[in-house]
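Risk register update: the risk of archive-format incompatibility is retired. Evidence:
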Amino acid sequence: MPQRMNTLKFHRKKAASKRQAKEQLIGCFQKAREAFHQNPSVSHRLVKKARRLAMKHKFKIPAPYNRQYCRNCISFLMPGSNVSIRTRKGHVVYFCRECRHIRRYPYKPRR
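Archived output:
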């Protein structure tokens, strides 16, 4: 019976640490957005930190934040300054101007 109690405590601690990591990840992306215009390199470092958190705690980065960084060069993307966003034949195309990487996300156009 004591062994079962220890595993329950472990899983509760693990879930709590994962929740804290997700909150930190969201905070990193918010800070990156605020810091981008003063110093883009700080925002790039914050995105790298957020990615490391997600990998360490083994969870996916939430969808709204997943499109805010380049998967190739891992830099924060700010529309109009270092990324261009276009729509083409059922796709939203993100073009990173730092590494020239193209990322396509499908969508259904309205009729």
